[in-house]
Amino acid sequence: MSTRSLVFTAERLLQVLSTFPEVNSYIVGLSGGADSTALVHALCKVRERLRVPFSAVHVNHGIHAESNLWQRQCEQFCRGQGVELTCLQIELKHASGKGLEAEARQLRYEAMSSLLGPADCLLTAHHADDQAETLLLNLMRGSGVDGLTAMPESRPLGDGYLQRPLLRFKNSVLKDYLHRHEIEWIEDPSNQYLNHDRNFVRHELIPLMEKRWPEVNQRLLLTQDAMTDARHLLERLADEYLEPNLYHPFVLHITPKCITEPQLFRLVVRRWMRQSGVPVIPAYKLGTFVDQVKRADSDHKISVSWDRCLLRWYKDRLWLQTDSEIMPCPAVRWPGGQTELDLGEDVGLMSIKAMEPTQRQLSPVIDMFTGSRFRVDSRVNIRDAVISQGSHHKSLKKLFQANEIPPWLRNSIPICLLDDEIVALGDWCFDEQFANWLSDHGIGLYWRPRHPILMYMHKQKQKVNH
Q1: Which of these three, 206, 223, 240, is where a domain ends?
Q2: If we measure between CA atoms, which residue out of 319, 320, 254, 263 comes closest to residue 287?
Q3: Count of alpha carbons within 13 angstroms of residue 228, beta-carbon side
Q4: 201 plus 304 within the same structural domain
Q5: 386, 392 in Cβ contact below 8 A?
Q6: Do residue 21 and residue 168 come from a single domain?
Q7: Can you give the pLDDT at residue 277?
Q8: Can you tell me the distance from the alpha carbon of 162 to that of 275, in angstroms, rounded to the nearest whole number?
Q9: 303 has which bridge partners?
Q10: Which residues pair with 87 in a beta bridge?
Q11: N or C: where does the chain have the smaller number of CB atoms within 10 Å of the terminal CB?
């Protein structure tokens, strides 16, 4: 894609927008700088032909001393253009560990995406120079094909889309547009600070490269186009693997072929992470994890963590966890006269129900579940962890292993006890005498977990036992 003589006009902007997916409305991210100002002004020139309404949003980070002045200038500009403007305040918490600029960018996108309804579109003013800078920065970070594709022109964001219609235009032609229309813009002094990597690339590295290779930005964009084609092919390969092996959005089966081909393993995991919407796992962490899995057996416990995400290996499966640890099952006595027991927002509910409601009544047997006789507990609180099955006694550890329940989930499985004797593991493994008693009285004991991983595991056990 060449941008050598591509002059920016409102007509050309309209042509670019026509190539993107149709949307219900546009919301333009307006910083007040030259690029976003040119984008808003050009949209105003063709607003009658957009077919959908558009507005603008300004995010005030409060980082710079003149942040409030910049917000007032954006408000004044939009009033003059007849554009509705929403101003959002965000507070930086300095808690991400990624630096001030990275945290500001993340919070800015979160704030703006919250305004998007179904099929609404956030327009940003990233241009060809930004694209070239991003490619070089990713190259310096050791990025693979994904990073070298730089920024896509259009992608999903929240309930709608993020579109970048200016990636074909250089920053200089956007400023030429503003000069032609005598439009002023804000110059952020921090854009000159060379301690920021992007500013160093923009003001030092690219000008030096242009002395040797004129139109270096266009040369870099050719690389970006080639990497985009390669990425699409690799995504197709990864999707062909994921389709039969992604048992659950958070559970991925890893075949022996995948284990013996680290390149495929890493490709599949990265694609899975992207589809799951979790932060990208650092390449060095993923590489170490893949090597550990290759050397270990299927029972070996291996994990890797990053950005509040956790990936675990157990029984030829990868288990993805994106929040805090799943809560263990609490120790609770069955409440008197009740047919349902709440075990928390992760573990869920235990209940007793008549298997034939029209013919059976629970009242004659509900006393079995009340008072001090029947209780639910976690494995961590039980010493004599065995369950009677016919003439044999099986340990909970062996039952968990036989049912392929990962070790880190075992404390969340409800263990039912009657007179301090284990009579049920969840609702799929019963003491034989207790199971006969339930059957004789026409009632069933049921567990309904709430956490997605526990729900998946419970569903698999139900398939096995039915």
Answers
A1: 223
A2: 263
A3: 15
A4: no
A5: no
A6: yes
A7: 82
A8: 16
A9: 312
A10: 58
A11: C
- pLDDT at residue 1 greater than cutoff 70: no
In this model, does residue 99 exceed pLDDT 80? no
Looking at the structure, do residues 340 and 283 belong to the same domain, yes or no? no
Mean pLDDT of 365-390: 73
Q: Which two tokens stand for residue 237?
A: 């390969």
150 neighbors 138 (Cβ within 8 angstroms): yes
Domain range spanning residue 303?
249-321
| Residue 16, token pair as written in the block | 């670019």
297-319 burial: b if 16+ Cβ within 10 Å, else e: eeeeebebeeeebbbbbbebbbb
Structure confidence at residue 360 (pLDDT): 52
Quote the strand ranges of 90-217, DSSP E.
120-123, 154-157, 160-163
> For the residues 194-201, what does the mean pLDDT come to?
85
Instruction: Please tell me the predicted confidence (pLDDT) of residue 164.
Output: 96
Percent of the chain with pLDDT over 70: 91
Phi/psi region, residue 184 (left: phi>0; alpha: psi -120 to 50; beta: rest), is beta
The burial of 113, by beta-carbon neighbours within 10 Å (0-12 exposed, 13-18 middle, 19 or more buried), is given as middle
Q: What is the mean pLDDT of residues 135-144?
A: 84
Claim to verify: residue 336 and residue 429 sit in the same structural domain: yes
Question: At which of 158, 189, 223 does a domain end?
Answer: 223
pTM for this structure? 0.70
One domain for residues 385 and 434: yes
Spell out a b/e string for 390-402, using b for 16 or more CB atoms within 10 Å of the CB, else e: eeeebebeebbee
Residue 241 domain-assigned (yes or no): no
Helix (DSSP H) and strand (DSSP E) numbers for the chain: 16, 21
CA–CA gap between residue 13 and residue 17 (Å, rounded): 6
Phi-psi label, residue 344: left if phi above 0, alpha if psi -120 to 50, beta otherwise: left
* Residue linked to tokens 């995504």: 235
**Residue 281 within a domain:** yes
216 near 209, Cβ under 8 Å?
yes
